[in-house]
Amino acid sequence: MTKFILHGGFTSADNEHNRTFYREMTTGVPDGGNVLLVYFAVTDGKLEEKFEQDKGRILAGAGDKSLNIQVATRENFIEEVKAADAVYMRGGSTETLLTTLKEYPDFKEVITGKIISGSSAGAYVLSTHYYSSSNHKVGVGLAILPARVICHYQSEHRDFQEREDPIRVMEGYPNELDLIVLKDHEWKAVIR
Questions:
Q1: Per-residue pLDDT at 162 exceeds 80
Q2: pTM
């Protein structure tokens, strides 16, 4: 079984929702386990800052566990995913992340049985369909998790102000798929 943890966005805020998200990410990872951080969606150039922030929060959520935390590389990505117990894809540009992950056709297969977390763009790429709050349109993910996903729902952030009701928009897409609606900082775990 694969454990998916989808986050609605803005993991950088220090609040209880985000603390429990990072804690959940390490639940089930053994002592001495490997956590792979995927920053392929990050376009603001702040990789080191994001790494230090994520590493600190993951370790804080892990309690007494000793974990090996590594940043994914494009050159060895599939091997790194295979060695990981948990994979976290941080948000940013959904299109950039989708384009990059499509270069690795084995990605879906190698994450099977792992803990796979995604925040915003990271959640979108895992889904079948997603509503992009920044572009105000529905996109097609990798369909690794058969679901429709909305992140940044009712966000107060100026970049994600809704022009129309994204839930209503998503009604036009396969209703047999779960609809996962996440506000900023909210998360949901799904086991498949």
A1: no
A2: 0.96
Fold of 3-191: Rossmann fold (3.40.50)
Complete DSSP assignment for 23-83: HHHHTTPPTT-EEEEE-TT--SS-HHHHHHHHHHHHHHHHTT---EEEE--STTHHHHHHH
Q: What is the pLDDT of residues 70-101, one digit of tens each?
A: 999 999 999 999 999 999 999 999 999 999 99
Give percent above pLDDT 70 in the chain: 100
Please state, in angstroms and rounded to a whole number, the distance separating the CA atoms of residues 109 and 81. Answer: 10
87 neighbors 114 (Cβ within 8 angstroms): yes
For 169, the token pair is 């928009």
- Asked if residue 16 has pLDDT above 90, the reply is yes
Which residues on neighbouring strands pair with residue 148, listed in sequence order?
A: 129, 179
Q: Domain locations in the chain?
A: 3-191
The structure tokens 């079948």 sit at: 128
